[in-house]
Amino acid sequence: MRLRDELPVDHPLNRFYRFGAALCGLFLLVFGCLGFAGSLSAFDTAGRQVAGLSTNGLLSAVSVVVGLLLVAAAAVGGNIASSVNITVGALFVLSGFVHLFLIDRPANVLDFGMSNVVFSFLMGLLIMTFGMYGRVSGGLPHDNPYWRSRHPDLAARETAATRRPRPGLPGPSVPARPPTT
To answer: For a FRET experiment, which of 21, 33, 111, 160 has its CA 20 to 30 Å from that of 71?
Structure first.
């Protein structure tokens, strides 16, 4: 698939990708800013809680950067927002798995707890859902721009078939007028 040509600029899915990126990005920005407001040190692993999640200065910084990335993707919109949502969501899920094994170990520099792991899984799945909606499916309708980009020959034939009348079929019929008396 080509990234720029598969979805028209004014396609309704564009709003969905933007909304998802903006919503999740703003949530991460708020979480990161609350962590900074608590004057946390960068590598503190003492288990300070912000919004029910353990955090430190480094996790707050990562949250702000990822939140800004998602908000920027929402500003751009379209396929960029969708692709960024898919990528960031996959990274969140991967981070959940990695930190699941790092809990209570010295390598846990982001101070992840079990609530952070669960949050990482859920946020990752939510962000990926926002990015994949309408793009990944087993049965996309033929008017979907992603289906059309994956099957250009069939799409061209369908478009051509709808533009020209088929031979042997009667043209548009005009209803007969009732007799006047």
So the answer is: 111
Element (DSSP H or E) covering residue 64: helix 57-76
Return phi, psi of residue 179, to 5°. Answer: -60, 140
Residue 98 belongs to domain spanning: 13-132
The answer to whether position 95 is within a domain reads yes
Whether 96 contacts 123, CB under 8 Å: no
- The whole-angstrom separation of Cα 79 and Cα 14 is 8
The pTM of the whole model exceeds 0.85: no
Does residue 137 lie in a domain region? no
- For 118-161, the pLDDT digits (tens) are 988 998 988 888 887 766 666 667 777 777 777 788 888 877 77
